[in-house]
Automatic annotation (TrEMBL):
The chain crosses the membrane at residues 24-48, 68-91, 98-118, 124-150. Keywords: Membrane, Transmembrane, Transmembrane helix. This is Uncharacterized protein. The keyword Transmembrane helix applies. It comes from Actinokineospora spheciospongiae.
């Protein structure tokens, strides 16, 4: 039996300072959020363009896909805004940024699924040759959502760096050393 306990008793601080969390996942989530926001803004632009082009010709044939297309375009626009604000907040080390990027990444993933579930929209996406782009946006959105919700991302955003603190007074006493300060 050893005369020293294997762990320090409860109530004592750890012997070594804990390393500060790495910002790799947070900054990757912010960068991916900016890229996804650009892709979502472009996707909303293309979707609004396709809907406006299709209004006179396609509405009678497409039925319910017209309102769904508008909802997808609005969802992509809102997603782009949420992703940009969330990425800016992550760069400012605010926890709300991770939540906003997760919500902003959820919307394009739903939109990508809707593009493939509604037959008329699926045909139009294939006609424009955008199938690979929609899949890429959906996969990037899934990647962004996972990165934003990882525990290391929140640990980095909640961590506050330690500041040097002088207990009660300046390091040289009450007054500055001779030659410094007001005369």
């Amino acid at each position: 039996m050893s005369q020293y306990p294997p762990y320090p008793p409860a109530g004592y601080p750890p012997r070594f300072p804990q390393p500060s969390p790495s910002g790799a996942t947070a900054y990757t989530a912010a960068g991916a959020g900016v890229v996804l926001a650009i892709a979502c803004a472009w996707g909303a632009f293309v979707t609004f363009g396709a809907v406006s082009e299709c209004v006179g010709r396609c509405v009678a044939r497409s039925g319910a896909s017209y309102p769904i297309s508008i909802a997808c375009a609005v969802g992509l626009s809102v997603s782009a805004l949420l992703l940009l604000v969330g990425a800016a907040l992550i760069f400012a080390r605010q926890t709300a940024g991770a939540v906003l990027t997760a919500v902003g990444a959820f919307l394009p993933s739903v939109t990508a699924v809707l593009f493939f579930l509604v037959p008329n929209i699926r045909i139009y996406v294939a006609y424009l040759g955008m199938t690979a782009v929609v899949v890429l946006i959906g996969l990037t959105a899934l990647f962004e959502m996972i990165l934003s919700l990882l525990p290391p991302t929140f640990a980095f955003l909640r961590h506050t760096p330690h500041k040097t603190h002088f207990p009660g007074h300046a390091p040289y006493g009450q007054y500055p050393p001779p030659g410094y300060g007001p005369h």
